[in-house]
From TrEMBL:
Entry's transmembrane regions: 12-31, 51-70, 82-99, 111-128, 140-165, 171-189, 227-251, 263-281, 293-315, 321-340, 352-378, 384-404
Superkingdom, natural source: Bacteria
Gene label: cmr
Organism whose genome encodes this protein: Pseudomonas atacamensis
Protein name, per record: Multidrug transporter MdfA
Membrane topology per record: Multi-pass membrane protein
Lineage, opening ranks: Bacteria, Pseudomonadati, Pseudomonadota, Gammaproteobacteria, Pseudomonadales
Keyword Membrane among UniProt keywords: yes
Length: 415
């Protein structure tokens, strides 16, 4: 059983973890399950196919829009009410897509749906860190990452199967109904972690919201080199994977003319590799500090991206590209939760605000980076995707190096 810092029973712990996992999975699933139908969406709404990656990137950017505000608000009013509001907003915007009649309205709803991702990052992640002890929190973050990765792993395949019986509009309605059930689970089982006395006699204090104070706190975080390096590294490290998710429908279905089922099957090696990396992280946590884990993870991470660049230069086919992405994905799975933990505890400020800015920076890097790669032709040829994705991922190395240099051993070591 996980060691909790607040006084809640085993049943509530299990219900909270289950509801939180379901909400995170649903926010990712809303993106990935619809990807096989995106060409149908653009055809039905009489829009250009270029909206396929745009809709995905808008979903990511939606996760950034409110995070700067959600973190400080949850520090004052608590994590529980904010997450309930976020899950309700997500469910309503999914259900509203059922009746949309233009690509502009569809893209706006994708932006609103993506805001649910912002609530996950800015509100639920700090709550998880405040409920559980450090080692358990890192493990649970990695396990949540595994569950979230079931979405891009199984989401396209599930979307293909659902399209046999449902239209893309009905899929969104189904997502909205499922979100209502998740909201009920959060209402029943999510504990409040702000202003509650913990078993160690301490508590996460409520921080009154002030525009001036919030801007000053954000400014102080942006002046923190360790925080900035960790947040930028999080975004750049995930950029190749995010770009693959956004451009795979164009590259595989449109350019390589694969049937949707084959497109879904080609996702399995990449996301299985990320899950494998997370499982390796869980095994190594007992014997390695977080900085040591990141250093180990850089080997498969960098080798995978260098092989990906070589695939582009040599004109290799889809198999070598996916194999290179999979090797990179192992390193990403090993390092992502550890880098997030270092970002969150790089400052003594409230974790709601720190998590919000971490999510804003990392998701903005992924969203703008993915849009840029799509704009310069990453979805037109496999070679273009490979070279730009490899270049974007390797750009994280200076930030990771600086992070490892400035992280003290007492912060990095698991307790």
């Amino acid at each position: 059983m996980q060691r909790t810092l607040i006084n809640i029973g085993p049943r509530q712990v299990a219900g909270f973890c289950l509801a939180l996992t379901a909400f995170e999975l649903l926010t990712y699933m809303a993106s990935d399950v619809i990807m096989p139908a995106m060409l149908d969406v653009t055809t039905d709404l009489e829009a250009d196919a270029r909206h396929v990656p745009h809709a995905f990137n808008l979903y990511l950017l939606g996760g950034v829009c409110l995070q700067w505000l959600l973190g400080p608000l949850s520090d004052q009013f608590g994590r529980r009410p904010l997450l309930l509001i976020g899950s309700a907003l997500f469910g309503v915007s999914c259900a509203a897509a059922f009746s949309t009649d233009s690509i502009e309205a569809f893209n706006l709803l994708r932006l609103l749906q993506g805001m649910g991702l912002g609530f996950v990052v800015a509100v639920s992640y700090p709550a998880l860190q405040e409920v559980f002890c450090e080692a358990d929190a890192v493990r649970l973050m990695a396990l949540l990452g595994n569950v979230a990765l079931l979405s891009p792993l199984l989401g396209p395949l599930l979307g293909i199967l659902l399209l046999e019986w449902l239209s893309w509009r009905e899929i969104f309605l189904l997502l909205g109904c499922t979100a209502a059930l998740v909201w009920l689970g959060l209402l029943l089982w999510m504990p409040e972690t702000v202003g509650v006395e913990r078993r160690d006699g301490q508590q996460t204090p409520r921080v009154p919201f002030s525009w001036r104070l919030t801007c000053r706190r954000y400014g102080a975080l942006l002046g923190n080199p360790r925080f900035l390096c960790a947040s930028l590294a999080l975004g750049l490290m995930s950029l190749p994977l995010i770009t693959w998710i956004g451009l795979a429908p164009l590259l595989l279905v449109r350019v390589l003319e694969m049937p949707p089922l084959e497109y879904g099957l080609w996702q399995i090696p990449v996301f299985s590799a990320v899950i494998a990396g997370n499982l390796i992280l869980d095994r190594l946590l007992q014997t390695h500090s977080l900085t040591q884990l990141i250093q180990l993870a850089l080997w498969p991470f960098c080798l995978g991206l260098l092989f990906l660049a070589a695939c582009a230069l040599l004109g290799a086919g889809l198999g070598p590209v996916v194999a290179s992405l999979s090797l990179y994905a192992v390193g990403l799975g090993m390092s992502n939760s550890a880098v997030y933990r270092l970002a969150l505890f790089s400052s003594d400020d409230s974790k709601g605000l720190v998590s919000a800015l971490t999510g804003m920076i990392s998701i903005a890097v992924m969203g703008f980076g993915g849009s840029l790669i799509a704009a310069i032709g990453g979805g037109s040829r496999l070679e273009y995707f490979a070279i730009w994705a490899a270049f974007g991922g390797l750009m994280c190395l200076p930030m990771v190096y600086r992070l490892l240099q400035t992280t003290t051993s007492d912060v990095a070591s698991p307790q």
